[in-house]
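[step 3/7] fold_predict: job queued, chain A
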Amino acid sequence: MTIMDAKDVDELQLDRYFDELCYACRTGDVENADRLISTGVKINAVDRFDNSPLFLASLCGHENVVKLLLERGAICDRDRYEGARCIYGALTDSIRDILLAFDVSKAVDVNQPFGTHISSLLKDIDIDQDGLLKLTHDVIFQFTNSYNKDLTYISANKFLLVARSSFMEKQLNGTDCEDDNNENNGIITLPETINQACFEIILKFIYLIPVLHEINPNNFNDLIKLSNLFHIELLPEFLMKVQHMTDPTEKSTLMTEYQYEFTKIARRQLDLFVENRILRNYLVEDDLSEKLPKLKRRRNSTYSDVLVRASRAIINEGEEQNEETRFYPCHLAMLFRADYFKLMFLTPFQERTGYEMNKTRKTSNNTYGFESLPIISFPKVCKFEVIEIIIRYLYYDNTTIPWEFAIDILLMADYLLSDRLKTMAATSIIQSGEEFLSHYSIFEVLYIGWETRVEKLEQYTAKVIAQNIEQYCNDDKNRLQLKDAIKKSSERISERQEIDTIELVDDIKYYLLEKYGLEADDVEIFMEENDPGLLEASGVLAYQTDLDLFNELLKGLEIDV
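[step 4/7] structure written:
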């Protein structure tokens, strides 16, 4: 496949994702909308009917989806046709107020969740009471002509600079020589020709901190030179265009267009970094002693500060179960996206103490480096493919979760205390539909949903059962499994009272109504009718047949439902 062919395939894939996003906006599926936005679709594009995702969510009255779209970069400019359409087409006053309050001048202040985290690594450094963010910084830029005498240096994360700028990679390689007399390892003194204010803007840009609307017009020329020097994609082009614009609306529109491209570029760069420098450079226990010294040296292409241990179970021919272990060179700054790792370092556990000692220790040859890379572990045994999917998610928000790994991802995300990743895994299960259910029982989905506290899976289970109520009530095996699930659902109610209902039963009855497009009040009204044709056309007769079948199953249970 040629590069152009691959690009065409990517565009087709994004077109499909955009169509799915529009559908999610119409139906109010906020979790799926979140997943699809993370694929990099053009959130301000329109479908073949000239409807944008924001207009569809506004028109259909889905406030949570409207908020999500605005947070992720959807534009509602009341002075333009599409923005006015969204406002006047809003189904509720609440949505209309949200759209009216939208400030188009700040439209570029948007980030994907991974971008928000990366931004925090730099911009939240002064309010980081626990010192976790500062702990991960491993390079210092020093200014010889600092305009502010109280600030003579700026610290940063090497791996991110390397991933985002080829110029910075060359510069950092230059500081990583193992010179026994080099006491300035990790410190880069910038020449007086570099404007500190402009450098800080470039650094913020690398960290995905929205700064496009804050750029001082007097700095345009210096910024263009500096962004060319640092090989920052598209930024010089944007600066040359925007410096000649005077209309605020045109500026905002241009900023929005480029902000989307900038985020897309950042995701691609981090994707390449993860694939080429992390996932391909894993170690196994047999060669750990041989290769680890190379990783200890500061001239390693990953600039990792921790090794992440991951293990999977393997069964030998004699049915004896062993474990295979890999060590992935990672960065604590990105692992902090999972609360499991963050909590590990919030307290003076062994992991934090060892990390701090290795991070700050000055080795005998006067270089600032690691005597060894600290090793931290994923909390449970699972497939390596699962670990690699999670690493991709943590670094650049990749939400592509094949259904084959969805349950493992869901369980691991629960261990890692990552609610968003749990939601993405649950969405993958639901979206895969029949293909997933051809390999897993719907009751496995229910029990996993209970175990991981994902209500969406409980509702999905009830919906599938309601849609196929005859299969689950008439087939002996399914009937027994459904009864068992209802009993377990009743046991989940602590100190159950007589008036308490069973959640699974209530959900199935709700989805039986939805199956025929009915409300509970509708059924009562229709049942007073004597016209058989009307009752059949309304779906009430079919609904009542299904309900009677379900109620018959419930009678066989020794519990009050």
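[step 5/7] annotate
The chain has 30 helices and seven strands.
The chain has four domains: 3-102, 113-272, 277-396, 441-555.
exit 0
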